[in-house]
Structures are given as structure tokens and as C-alpha cells.
């Protein structure tokens, strides 16, 4: 057992008993980590807003297998502009839930950490937008090794060229001849998604409405295939984005 | 002496369900009650009385014994509705003696990560009250957590179409404190909500 200082985001908390909380942290150094926050419910002062979702913090954690212990949490940012905008809150919470449910515990993912931080920084300074959420999702899948087959058929390996692809269940992509009935994805959609992976800058690849619909179908399928469930925060995201 | 089926262990079991009460505290409380049979009787009566009498106000959804509650039926400014998450928050506002309008208890807050959406709250009942007329201001007093903020912003958006004033309790540096000692989150939030002088 040893204590470490980590850069982290709070991504979820659950109450434990009457006075404690278990917090899910996404850390730069150690990936996703569950930590026991003793006294977090009893005294708001103990950790304050540090244990609110999407707070960017620096923590001291007593590392233990299974459940670590939270010793101290200092706030770097609560993202005040996100907290003051309904759509931004919905997008930020969705990003938290996505990272919480798709990453394995104690697996360092520094690239994903930087992507997540960049997404929150972007939400803090620019309006919440559907295409930037999709940009976050495709890059997240790529970093986790779940990149969809955007160039060549996942079954026979043939290049799509400019013919586009067919979306099968579970976010699988393949060419026309290989395909069972599925949803067509245009060449423009595939190229746009590739472009999203070619840059780390949010807002640099605007997606047209038809591309957004197709990319959304692919990403929704691919993500739920990996999380194994529908994310709870999606309902709220839909409700406020109307 | 304490068998699983005994009435005493049943009492301990029930006490343990209370927040903050573990096995040892439950035992201690049970034995304390046993020492005075009179205490046991009055506690039992109080519990049954609460069960029989306490309900929620059909207008504002506050915990009450009378329906409508004493606030809804009292001499209050019914043109101003203060929206709170629960009855404890309502009581805190009442203790301030600074508010003279009526209330609306949402019975929770929007919590997307827990799957609690607006439909799970008493929002449609609030809208009904407003549509019945006579309301000129809604004061939103949900908590200053992400969930409370989401709820406040959602209500503000919803009420935009209705022609009434919507306000939010002010937030920021605690009264009587030195800025030097205030945590970063509170300062960030206070800057966000700064007022023009
Ligand atoms: Zn093929
Ligand atoms: Zn009432």
C-alpha cells in the first residue's frame, strides 16, 4: 500500500452508507480507478465540489487492489461554463458515463485522458455540438483499439474505394458483396470519420447533417456493442438537444 | 437469549435500517428503550401517529399533516413560487424568515448518470400551477450540485415560453469568509455568477 498523487477527473460517485462515497476517477497515470472517499457524504467540506462529475482535480490516493482510498482532492477546475449550460452539462455527463463504462479498471490510457480533457476544455469554451460529440466518440473508439473498418471491408479486406460501406449489427462495417442487409454508409461519411482521426483538434471537422446521421448510427451501434448496455445519460442528452 | 425470532432482535433489525445506525448502535438504542417501558410506548405511538397523519400536500408536495399544507393555505404571497428539491430544503428556507411566497417540492433533482430524468420529478404539476394563473415569479432553489444546476437550467428553459420572472438563488463566497481561504471551486462559481454593481 502506498500513496500516489494523480491527475484526475471525477466521472461518477455512488453513496456508500450514511457518510461515505465511492468515487470513480479517470486518472492520467493509472486510468480508471475506484476510490473510497471516507466522510464525503457527512461533510461537504471534506472534498467539496471535487467529487462532482467532470471536476478536474489532483488527488492523493492510497493505492490498493480493488478499492483505493481517497486521501485528498484539490480542484483544478469545475468547468463553470459547462455547469451553467444545460446542453453542455448533458454532453459532459454523457462523456463521463461513456469513459466510466467503456474503460477497464487500472489500465493507463494517457491518450484517452488527453482526449477527454480536450473535449471538456472545448465544451467549456464553445457551444455543445453533436458533431463534436461524434468526434470525441470516434477518437475514443480508436484509442481503445475499437476503430471501425473505415477503409477496407472487415470481412474480405477489399477497399471500399468510393462505393461506401454497409453498417451491420454491432457497428461492424463491410463491403456490398459481403453484406447481409444493413444500412448504407456513404463515402463522405467514411472519409469524414477518417479525417476526425487525423486531427486532435475539436471543431476542425464539421459534419454535414446527412453525414452526422450516418456516423451517429455507426457510433451508437459500436459503442453499445462495447459497453454492453445503453448509457443512462443518453436519454437526457436527447431531451435537451431537441 | 437473543434468538433471531425474538422481538428484541426484530427491534434491533428495524433500528439498523436507520441512516447512521450500525449493529452496535442499534443494540445500544434497543437496550436504552427497554430500560423505560414508558419511552417505548410513547415512541411507538409517535411512529404510528406519523404514519397515520403525515402526507404530502397535494398543491406543493411538501410533507404535511393538513392538505393543503399550512403554507399553501396561509397568508402567503401565492404569486411567488419557490422550487426546492425536497421538504428539508423547504424547512431551511422557512428558518430564514426571509421568504414569504409559497413553495413547490420537486421530490428530487435531474440526475442523468442515475437515469433520473425530468419526468420523475413534480415538474408537470409545477407547470399546471403556473398555467392556472396568478404566478408572477418562480424562484429556483435547487442545490448547487451538478444535478441541482441541471434541474434549475431545465426549469428555466421550460419556463421561457411562459411570461413570468424566473430567478435562481444567488451563489458564491460564503458570508463572513476571507476570499484567501475559499476553495478554488467556490471562487470559480462565484466569478461565474458575479453581479454588476
Ligand atoms: Zn467484403
Ligand atoms: Zn402546500
UniProtKB/TrEMBL annotation, chain A:
It comes from the Bacteria. It holds the Pfam family RecO_C. InterPro entries: ARFGAP/RecO, DNA_rep/recomb_RecO_N, NA-bd_OB-fold, RecO, RecO_C. This is DNA repair protein RecO. NCBIfam families: reco. Belongs to the RecO family. Keywords: DNA damage, DNA recombination, DNA repair. Residues 1-78 form the DNA replication/recombination mediator RecO N-terminal domain. Involved in DNA repair and RecF pathway recombination. It comes from Pelotalea chapellei.
Automatic annotation (TrEMBL), chain B:
A zinc finger (C4-type) spans 57-72. It comes from the Bacteria. Coiled coil: none annotated. Residues 79-174 form the Toprim domain. Keywords: DNA damage, DNA recombination, DNA repair, Metal-binding, Zinc, Zinc-finger. Signal peptide: none annotated. SUPFAM superfamilies: Recombination protein RecR (SSF111304). Belongs to the RecR family. May play a role in DNA repair. It seems to be involved in an RecBC-independent recombinational process of DNA repair. It may act with RecF and RecO. NCBIfam families: recR (TIGR00615). HAMAP family: RecR. This is Recombination protein RecR. It comes from Pelotalea chapellei. The gene is recR.
Amino acid at each position: 500500500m502506498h500513496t500516489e498523487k494523480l491527475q484526475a477527473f471525477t466521472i461518477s460517485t455512488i453513496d456508500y452508507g450514511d457518510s461515505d462515497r465511492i468515487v470513480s476517477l479517470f486518472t492520467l497515470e493509472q486510468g480508471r480507478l475506484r476510490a473510497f472517499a471516507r466522510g464525503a457524504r457527512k461533510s461537504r467540506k471534506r472534498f467539496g465540489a471535487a467529487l462532482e462529475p467532470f471536476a478536474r482535480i489532483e488527488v492523493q490516493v492510497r493505492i490498493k487492489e480493488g478499492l483505493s482510498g481517497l486521501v485528498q482532492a484539490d480542484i483544478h477546475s469545475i468547468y463553470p461554463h459547462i455547469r451553467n449550460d444545460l446542453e453542455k452539462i448533458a454532453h459532459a455527463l454523457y462523456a463521463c458515463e461513456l469513459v466510466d463504462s467503456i474503460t477497464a479498471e487500472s489500465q493507463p490510457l494517457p491518450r484517452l485522458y488527453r482526449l477527454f480533457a480536450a473535449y471538456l476544455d472545448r465544451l467549456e469554451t464553445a457551444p455543445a455540438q453533436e458533431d463534436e460529440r461524434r468526434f470525441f466518440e470516434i477518437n475514443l473508439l480508436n484509442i481503445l483499439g475499437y476503430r471501425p473498418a473505415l477503409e477496407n471491408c472487415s470481412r474480405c479486406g477489399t477497399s471500399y474505394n468510393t462505393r461506401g460501406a454497409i453498417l451491420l449489427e454491432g457497428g461492424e462495417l463491410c463491403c456490398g458483396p459481403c453484406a447481409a442487409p444493413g444500412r448504407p454508409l456513404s463515402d463522405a461519411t467514411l472519409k469524414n470519420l477518417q479525417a476526425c482521426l487525423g486531427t486532435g483538434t475539436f471543431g476542425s471537422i464539421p459534419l454535414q447533417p446527412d453525414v452526422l446521421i450516418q456516423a451517429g448510427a455507426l457510433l451508437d451501434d459500436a459503442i453499445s456493442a462495447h459497453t454492453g448496455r445503453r448509457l443512462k445519460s443518453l436519454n437526457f442528452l436527447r431531451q435537451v438537444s431537441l | 437469549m437473543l434468538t433471531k425470532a425474538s422481538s428484541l432482535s426484530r427491534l434491533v433489525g428495524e433500528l439498523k435500517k436507520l441512516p447512521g445506525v450500525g449493529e452496535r448502535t442499534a443494540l445500544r438504542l434497543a437496550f436504552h428503550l427497554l430500560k423505560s417501558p414508558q419511552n417505548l410506548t410513547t415512541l411507538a405511538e409517535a411512529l404510528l401517529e406519523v404514519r397515520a397523519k403525515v402526507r404530502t400536500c397535494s398543491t406543493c408536495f411538501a410533507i404535511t399533516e393538513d392538505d393543503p399544507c399550512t403554507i399553501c393555505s396561509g397568508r402567503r404571497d401565492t404569486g411567488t413560487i419557490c422550487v426546492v428539491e425536497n421538504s428539508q430544503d423547504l424547512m431551511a428556507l422557512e428558518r430564514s424568515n426571509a421568504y414569504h411566497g409559497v413553495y413547490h417540492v420537486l421530490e428530487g433533482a435531474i440526475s442523468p448518470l442515475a437515469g433520473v430524468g425530468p419526468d420523475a420529478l413534480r415538474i408537470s404539476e409545477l407547470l399546471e400551477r403556473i398555467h392556472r394563473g396568478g404566478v408572477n415569479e418562480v424562484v429556483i432553489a435547487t442545490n448547487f450540485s451538478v444535478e441541482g444546476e441541471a434541474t434549475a437550467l431545465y426549469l428555466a428553459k421550460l419556463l421561457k415560453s411562459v411570461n413570468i420572472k424566473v430567478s435562481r438563488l444567488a451563489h458564491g463566497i460564503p458570508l463572513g469568509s476571507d476570499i484567501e481561504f475559499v476553495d478554488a471551486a467556490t471562487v470559480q462559481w462565484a466569478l461565474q455568477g458575479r453581479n454588476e454593481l
